[in-house]
Design a protein that fits this description.
Strand content: 25-35%
Number of strands: 17
CATH topology of the largest domain: Rossmann fold
CATH architecture of the largest domain: 3-Layer(aba) Sandwich
Largest sheet: 9 strands, mixed
Shape: globular
Strand order of the largest sheet: 3-4-5-2-1-6-7-8-9
Number of domains: 2
CATH class of the largest domain: Alpha Beta
Distance between the termini: 10 Å
Length: 291
């Protein structure tokens, strides 16, 4: 099987292949930013039943629907890695079920980005690709990633870290109009979710948004329902909803400032690495095109 890039388009980065672990909200913001900058050969890996609250801006929805579109960029679910090249030629991002990363080994990408946001020990290894990027806590430069991108809101959000680690996980959501934990809906118990409201609906404090089994989950603040988990089985304390007190409907269907900032940091890191090793990339590209 050849996963070589066969293209006549003129672009110095046309042959760069990128694998992203995860296809949730932040991973999708990263993929969208890279794609928008011309780095379109992207494979995203997911679990069989991915969980996303901000489903309207998460490419992992392709696992359930076969395809997903975020701000004009489409991702399509692959059944087999052999189809990835033709999918890229159609200008689509590829999503594949691969929690163990076996298809990444077959792809031999130039870049691997771990955007799973496990927040602690990661199974990603620094030798998985010539350039490995870790997002947020759980990564240390030169140990399990070549660079780390800061994911904590604040002055350093999106910063490319070339020595050390990202800030520790705080467990506190970023403040929006002064609200932090109040914005987030969490499952009061394990069980199956049943919707009452939908993404984009307006809510007032006290409104029931959904049920977990027979237990109602109510909004604690006024706002707009920016995110809502699928009607699936969840664990106790799982994040299942997101209320935006700014009440802007467009926020429900667009990538967040945080995801864009992290995506910008990833793009900076990828391009810096590409420009420092451009001859190596070009040589590999010519080799693949000759296959």
């Amino acid at each position: 099987m050849s996963l070589g890039i066969h293209t006549t388009e003129y672009s110095p980065t046309a042959g760069v292949t990128i694998a992203i672990k995860g296809a949730g909200e932040l991973a999708s913001g990263i993929a969208h930013r890279l794609y928008s900058a011309g780095l379109t050969r992207i494979l995203m890996t997911e679990t069989e039943k991915p969980i996303a609250v901000r489903r309207t801006v998460s490419f992992c929805e392709a696992v359930y629907e076969g395809k997903a579109e975020v701000e004009g960029v489409r991702a399509v679910l692959l059944q087999d890695i052999d189809g990835v090249t033709s999918l890229w030629q159609q200008k689509d991002i590829a999503v594949i079920i691969d929690p163990a990363g076996e298809y990444i080994k077959k792809l031999h990408p130039h870049v691997v980005i771990d955007a799973i946001m496990a927040k602690k020990g990661s199974s990603t290894h620094i030798d998985e690709a010539p350039f490995v990027i870790g997002i947020g806590p759980g990564f240390t430069v030169a140990v399990n990633a070549h660079v780390v991108i800061e994911s904590n809101r604040g002055h350093n959000l999106g910063r490319v870290i070339r020595n050390g680690s990202a800030e520790s996980f705080t467990g506190i959501p970023g403040a929006t109009m002064g609200y932090t934990t109040e914005r987030v809906l969490r499952s009061p118990r394990a069980g199956r979710v049943r919707h009452v409201l939908h993404i984009g609906d307006s809510v007032e404090a006290g409104d029931v948004v959904l049920y977990v089994e027979e237990t109602p989950v109510a909004a604690r603040i006024d706002g707009i329902l920016r995110g809502l988990i699928r009607e699936i089985e969840v664990k106790e304390a799982e994040k299942i909803g997101d209320i935006d007190p700014r009440c802007r409907i467009e926020h429900c269907y667009t990538i967040s400032d945080k995801a864009r900032a992290i995506g910008g940091g990833v793009l900076e890191a990828v391009m810096a690495d590409f420009n420092s090793r451009r001859d190596g990339y070009e040589e590999e590209k010519r080799h693949k095109e000759a296959l």
